[in-house]
Amino acid sequence: MTVAINASSTIELTGDCPVEDAEVLLQHLLTVPNAKVDWRSCESAHTAVIQVLLVARALPLGPPKNAFLRDHVEPQLRRAAS
Questions:
Q1: Which of 12, 52, 73, 81 could form a disulfide bond with 69, CB atoms 3.0-4.6 angstroms apart?
Q2: Is the pTM of this model over 0.85?
């Protein structure tokens, strides 16, 4: 599983996050609405995962490992979160 919630209620995205992780991420965000999302170990994320982050207005702790996520997606998440 590439999406998990740890003991400190931080949702961690690790490795390659496929489309199936979008629902898991959404469930974690609904269960713990104020949870922080840590994507520093994220190597790729399906657009469905990114869409969940955008709709939730979640600004992940970063930067992610992936340069595309860092350079193109993270700025959009910053805009959505503000």
A1: 73
A2: yes
Query: Residue 69 and residue 34: Cα distance in Å, rounded?
Result: 22
Are 5 and 12 in contact by the 8 Å Cβ rule? The answer is yes
Q: Which of 76, 78, 6 is nearest to 38 (CA)?
A: 6
Q: Provide the β-strand partners of residue 79.
A: none
Residues in contact with 19: Cβ distance below 8 Å, sequence separation at least 6, in sequence order? 46, 48, 49
pLDDT in tens, 8-67: 899 999 999 999 999 999 999 999 988 999 999 999 999 999 999 999 998 899 899 999
Q: Are strands 10-17 and 36-45 parallel, antiparallel or unpaired?
A: parallel
